[in-house]
Model the fold of this input.
Amino acid sequence: MKKVLLLIIAAVVLLSVGGILLDYWIVLPSHATATYVGSGKCAQCHQGSFDRWHGSPHDQAMDLATSETVLGDFENASLTYQGVTSQMFREGDRFMINTEGPDGDLEDFEVKYVFGIEPLQQYMVEFPDGRVQVLRVSWDTQSKEWFYHYPPDVRDERLAPDDPLHWTGRMSNWQQMCAECHSTNLQKNYDPQLACYQTTFSEIDVSCETCHGPGSMHVELAETPSLFWDRHHGYGLPDLKNKNAKFEIESCAPCHARRHRVAADFTPGEELLNYFEPALLREGLYHADGQIQDEVYVYGSFLQSKMHAKGIRCTDCHDAHSTRLKHEGNRVCTSCHQHPAGKYDVPAHHHHAPGSSGAQCVACHMPETHYMLVDPRRDHSIRNPRPDLSVALGVPNACTQCHLEMENQDAPLRYADVLAKANGGNVSAEKTLNRIDRQMLAATEKWYGAPKEKDPHFAYALDAARRGQADAEEQLVALLGRKDLPPIVRATAVEHLGELETPTSRAAVITQIEHADPLVRGVSIRNLHQRGYSGKDLIQAVGPYLTDPVRMVRSSAVSVLAPHREALTPELRMAFDRAAIEFTEGQRADADLAGSHYNLGNFALDTGKTGQAEAEYLQALKLDPDFIPARFNLGMLYSRKGDDHNAELTFRTMAEQDPSAGLPRYRLGLILGRMGKFTQAEQSLHEAIEREPENFDYSYALAILYLESGQLEKSLDQTRRLDRLVPGLPVTKQLMQDIQQRLRATRTSPKDN
Done:
């Protein structure tokens, strides 16, 4: 009996161990990958989260046009703007709009999709080539009326059908401008040969898997009765609740950032810079102090904030599923910024009547800027108002914004419009803002004292760089010496220094290549220009970053080292080739963008593949005929090949496209001179000089043209002008000596010899 019992126990143990071992090995293998399952599958276990998401702005980011989703008035409504009358009407279940089409004629178009629900709704039309275009005729969901969503810089101008800003043009193309962030698992599927799209998505809106990643693995693991179901994969989803806020923030960032793509198929939880590079604090996008100017979708401003530096994440303020704020009013802030004496939410701090708009934390620390005419977005840098910077540099401040609008209650002025007028030279607007800025400065210094800063605000250095001030380099270098700079500010300073290309700027840039932040590393490498560096120096400085753990950095390294591939060691060449494949794949992911083909053309040219470079530049111009950088590089390629005919045609087209530019006329003049068309070359060079009178190269080229065509007196006069333009240059002195020598030779008669 005892033996039988022991045998039974042994069998149970063996079976248990065997079952455990089998269980260990039958779970998902380490190389398993997830696919998309749809939000309905998520709702089966996460009903509460699903319910909060359902009906949210994410859920309604995009939808088919139906009676339930269309909010605009399509009952024979109309809107006239700049001489074009658009009519909105119904044909059965279809929503229609009669408006100006791509040929300039009024046509009927069916609205296939809707975009958004608040404060505006936009409408989209699908064309036979798969393009989806966003109509500029839009519905204001608050005032319940139609309005024309004009681009900010062409308010009072009718857009021609061939204008890229026309609703049928590339700037209103859904696939290029909007799609990635309004649908889940979007695949553009653009065919460059056929010039058509076959775009797909897993779900039409921003669903669960947009933020959490594809869910098939999570579902399979959850439905597997295994002790080891998370052995390889955790819960099959990224850990967005990780104590490191980076994982959550960078899962939101792809759609809440102004950025360009580095690679396709981003999955939440992964390193953002492996897939995207956020826009820096460039002029036109951000004010010099980092406040938002153009539509930058909050991520770039949040990176500058003390909140970000302290580890605050999006869901500390926002409910992840409904997207609503977690509290009402000032409770959003005071839920964390508490004080026994009520330090912040009291008049002693904000100096406004309790409950007034000026007493709201966000009014001062997160001012609004309107985009798309009716959509207010708050600046997420969460900064103190700085009227002192407004007085010194002309940047906005929250105090002036409110008080300007209060002064003009009968005819409200939009702060951004007045600011744009002032920066554009409007004296009246400039005086108005300066007056209010000084009033606000006096008030804030009375209440809080002057700002206490160990170092000058970075705005001074960035503003100096934008204005081209003589001391800009000194200020930027000093800025890089600080340890308290947010990486996005540091990277912006590096980019400005890269534009200078002086020994001092290059030395400053190279110090940033080893920076811990990958954005700084990548931007520094990209701005370590080859001028002033030997191939050996570049390889030594940049070569190690071909294997950087972050793709954006590797892409920068491979671009810089492209002309030097053959000089790399075998090991580095292998790393280069791997990074080159990544770079190419990333650019091909946006095959419908001219910029991608331009980048590929430059890379091909740098690696000696001139035929491929030409093809890529031509494809870029096919997608965007106005893309000047691609046309210029194409012209330079033809010039280097000795194809003067195509070089001439290319630079002529470029000159016609940009009447104010001197560069294409200069290059055209050089080509015409080489072809022996001296009269035309002279005219072209004169035109270049008229547009940029201080450009030494243009005037020098004209002096050489006169010399080569035997017009020695004109060449001498032009050279003297050069010497007045930039006195004492050796090249000018040598040219003058050569001309005078030839003049003496021509004046010597045969009998004198």
Remarks:
- The radius of gyration is 31 Å.
